[in-house]
Design goal:
mainly alpha; globular
Amino acid sequence: MVILGVYALFLLWLGYTEYKKVRSVGHFVVSSRNAPWYLVGGSIIASCIGGSATIGTGGLSYEIGFAAIWWLLSAVCGFILLTVFLAKKVSNSKALTMPQMLEYYIGKRARFIASIVIVIAWSAILAAQFSAAARIIASIANLPFQTALFVGAFLIVGYSILGGQASILRSDLIQTIIILSGFLLIVLWFIFFKGAPIQSVKFEFFNEKFGFDTWSYYMVILGGSYVVCPMLFARILSAKNEKHAVGGALFAAVGILLGSFLVVMVGVLSKNFITADTLSDTILTNEIFQLLPVSLGLVLLIVLLSAIISSADSCLITASSVFCNDILRTKSLATYRLFTVVFAAAALALTFCGKNILGFLFAANDIYVSGIVAPVFIAMVTYNGRRMNEKLAIAAIVAGGGLGFYAAVSDIKYYSMLGVLAALVLSLIAAFVKDKQTDTVTIVS
């Protein structure tokens, strides 16, 4: 409990130091575009290895083995596509958010519709982070889960509304080091002190519990969420220049790959010592935590808390920034902070709907990736002075997003794959039947 208090005070102090510097929306949303490559990359790693890649993926690897690495390996594949095809264009943009860029590449209506989809999806992602944080806090303070939810939300919101993107970038590099080194220590402890038989680990990418159909879903839906992502675009927009943006993206890809391997190995090695049936969401916070000596247990809690907070604060800033910049079209810093609290409350309410951590993330990705990724990616890579046909692009967003939404509520995942296909086909047609560039909006330099 003392460690949790100290950690919370440190984050709030860091947020407060940046709070005194924040004088504009640009500083709050993209850190005045002055971040070096290592802060950009470190922040991306910390944000990607959040509740899903720790509590979620740790439990998944316990259930299906090493094949769980595809959760973040698909992310690396998607992120490479972002780096190769989009990073320079994003960095050279003068936008504050990803939807604002759509006004240049597609049109004003597309910007508004995409913003609605993003706000809904990121609220679900934030709910996943709140659920993950509650697991940790409940373990540390011996609190009921629902009480821990409110405690965690208060900490995350309090930290996020103070310094905005600037404090997130500066804290995330430290949290990345904590996350990677912490999981490395735990893997080494399992092997050298607990005697986990490393030779028994099956380094297989497919097995009877993880087949081609699941792999396809991971690559398209999960990987796609890293190709076009408002949260990752915000990091790239925060870079000093194009060189720092690309360098940070490459650094992040390596770090995410290393992190995915370490998290999965913790889950796989723990199978040698955990025999009781248990919920996958509790593997790291309960069963593995109880296996570790006190010192390493403390390390695990700090690692998990770092991972979750570094994702949750980014989700909050993303949702509030998109809503305020692209829907309300306001430049009021107070309004941005207000809606940071509003979206935190909405996400908190979602946590009571009964889904587990991975359930929230899959639902969010079903909606977002099916409707947004293909239109945005194709609009950006095919732009040649004339943007894609806006009506067809909107049809792609609505058709893909609608099928993704049905997949999320029905839990029939192939509808999200159909959504991606529908959005892709319509986007390709929209790129072929281009609109004339009739407005004078200046979003990309």
